[in-house]
Recover the amino acids of this structure.
């Protein structure tokens, strides 16, 4: 059987775990320490991280009739808003490193992953990928200082599962609507290895992408 090498490399680096889900927690702790966010929740992509942030705000009773977005962004963001039934407006706005989903405190930080990049009192969503700082094939994370929101993100990103209860059917109560948005254990292991390698090299990450890396969505026919 062909297997990915990350878990074995993690063992060879001295890491241990009692169950595979511990690897997710190790990765989240490293993200939290690096970015300065009190809490981190990994997801399978940044778009799903943004979605969970907005879902949480809607569940809290927040009225979001419209989101204002920079026109220079990835196409999945307006598609995600359409899925949630939230109207959007594209604004001619240039940005560097991050931008808000106005008027909320949800921050699209897809192209920024730098030391202490977390902005307090916000839900900041980062992205991992081959063009991003942390070159995992695909992934994202929600950074927050809101413990209640974090508890929701932890459950909602993984089918409302409590990772302390294995197998999943031993969990008798599912109290939130969950989504299959979890980052794979192998990708979390790769993230740990990459972050450790950056630490050894003393790598200082800088913003390598900004609004210039995206087309102007106002020039496209968004007919969905």
């Amino acid at each position: 059987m062909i297997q990915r090498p990350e878990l074995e490399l993690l063992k060879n680096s001295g890491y241990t775990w009692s169950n595979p889900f511990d690897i997710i927690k190790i990765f989240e702790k490293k993200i939290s320490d690096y970015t300065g966010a009190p809490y981190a929740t990994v997801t399978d992509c940044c778009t799903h991280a943004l979605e969970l942030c907005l879902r949480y705000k809607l569940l809290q009773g927040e009225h979001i009739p419209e989101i204002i977005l920079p026109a220079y962004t990835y196409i999945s963001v307006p598609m995600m808003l359409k899925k949630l039934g939230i109207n959007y407006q594209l604004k001619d706005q240039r940005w560097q490193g991050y931008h808000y989903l106005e008027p909320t405190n949800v921050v699209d930080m897809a192209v920024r992953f730098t030391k202490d990049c977390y902005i307090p009192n916000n839900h900041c969503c980062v992205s991992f990928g081959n063009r991003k700082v942390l070159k995992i094939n695909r992934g994202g994370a929600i950074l927050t200082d809101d413990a209640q929101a974090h508890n929701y993100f932890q459950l909602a990103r993984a089918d409302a599962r409590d990772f302390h209860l294995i197998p999943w059917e031993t969990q008798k109560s599912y109290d939130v609507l969950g989504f299959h948005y979890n980052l794979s254990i192998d990708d979390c292991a790769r993230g740990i290895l990459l972050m450790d390698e950056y630490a050894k090299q003393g790598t200082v990450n800088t913003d390598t992408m900004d609004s210039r890396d995206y087309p102007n969505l106002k020039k496209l026919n968004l007919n969905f």
Summary: The chain has a mean pLDDT of 93. The longest strand covers residues 123-129.
